[in-house]
Specification:
The chain has 274 residues and is α+β, with helices and mostly antiparallel strands. 35% of the residues lie in helices and 22% in strands. 44% of the residues are buried. This is Histidine kinase/HSP90-like ATPase domain-containing protein.
Length: 274
Amino acid sequence: MERLRRKAPGAAVSEDVDLDLRNCHYLGPAAVVTLCALRAKADLAAKSFRIALPESPPPLTNYCRYSGLQRFFGLGPGPDAHPDNVTTPVRQFRTRPLSELAEISSLVRRQMGLSKSDEHYLNLTLIELAQNVLDHAKSQVGGFLSARALSTERQVRFAVADLGIGFREALRLTHPVHRDLDAIRLAMTANVSSKSSTHNLGQGLKLLRDIVLANGGSMLLCSKGAWFELLNGRENVGVFLNGNEYPGVLAVVTLPVRGPGADEDKDDHGDVWD
């Protein structure tokens, strides 16, 4: 999270891009959804967006396959079902992705042993996060989501991203603010919504924060030039440095694994077990 806060991707794909990730040591849901969204945006702009994926170690190369990153960029097969059901491949959505969200909820439930109440609120939160993309993000490529479990770190991580207009512009008519920093603060307040749809209740991010706090997890939210982070029970907000910004909205959540099987070492297929 710290690396992403310090330097976010550029806001637009205005030229051909060749990105060499062969020396990258970690890829997770946040990177996967962002890279796939940028590739989709480049396709719309008739620009090329090529990446070179890591060639080792096996846990990382396997994750590129099971996460769907490899196939999305035309670099190999996948994502066939992971043998241990611990990776939710990247999904692009333009309508409410109920089945895809159910995959993530199921992954979190299996790994964490969530209570029925927490699982219910997690489902509501994921649905509203996705609905936010559909209602007011105005993202030409729709939204992207993915999830991953990590055994050695005893965590489940999921990410939802769009390449839309961001919170400040989405809230402009109902809650006019002039800075991305103020908009991201406002977006974390309950009952704040663009009111662009009857589905949008303005509760999604507040519920998500409550779930993260209750379970001792962490959360990173980026919108254009600003970020919000919840880590170790403390909240921080800030702006990206040197004119960098995230090209839309990204939500990344990490929850600790507490459920049955948390101590099992499943590294035969390495892609999610670091």
